[in-house]
Amino acid sequence: MENLETTNWLLGVVAVASALQTLLLIGLAVAGYRLFRQVGNAADALEARHVEPLRRQVDGVLTQMDDVLGEVHAITARISQRTERVDSAITGTIERVDETAEHVLHRVRDRVAQATGVVRGIRAAIASLLTTDTASKPQAEAGGGL
Predict the structure, then answer these.
(1) How many angstroms separate the CA atoms of 128 and 126, rounded?
(2) Mean confidence (pLDDT) of the chain
(3) DSSP secondary structure of 76-134
């Protein structure tokens, strides 16, 4: 029996140790839960004090950037339109200058051709008169001696 008493006594010690371990684990779980809640509350407070104001400021800056980008887009579109208009105007002007230069060139050629024709005509007339005068004189001398 003595062996059973020792065994019972050891089983009692093991039971008490198990109960203490269970109580200790329950205590650690409660302490862990409280710590978890405190950390969560601290994180919420930190977010409310620091992160939320920063987020609002960043949102404000992003909104301003969106406005600026919208204005830049509008300005770019206007510049593009005006560039196209200037390009079109320059192209039209160059075409008109080319047409005018070609027209002036043809007119000058026509006038020069007319002037050349007149000069050639006068030259031919003068050459004809000079040639007839010199050609008729020897005939007159030759005809007058008959």
Answers:
(1) 5
(2) 86
(3) HHHHHHHHHHHHHHHHHHHHHHHHHHHHHHHHHHHHHHHHHHHHHHHHHHHHHHHHHHH
The DSSP code sequence of 23-83 is: HHHHHHHHHHHHHHHHHHHHHHHHIIIIIHHHHHHHHHHHHHHHHHHHHHHHHHHHHHHHH
Amino acid (1-letter code) at residue 3 = N
- Tokens 């200790």 correspond to what residue? 24
Q: What is the pLDDT of residues 55-108, one digit of tens each?
A: 899 999 999 999 999 999 999 999 999 999 998 989 999 999 989 989 898 998
Distance CA 51, CA 49 (A): 6
Rg from Cα positions in the chain: 59
**What percent of the chain lies above the pLDDT cut of 70?**
88
Task: Return all residues near 125 (Cβ < 8 A) that are at least 6 apart.
Answer: none
Give the integer Cα–Cα distance in Å for 80 and 88: 12
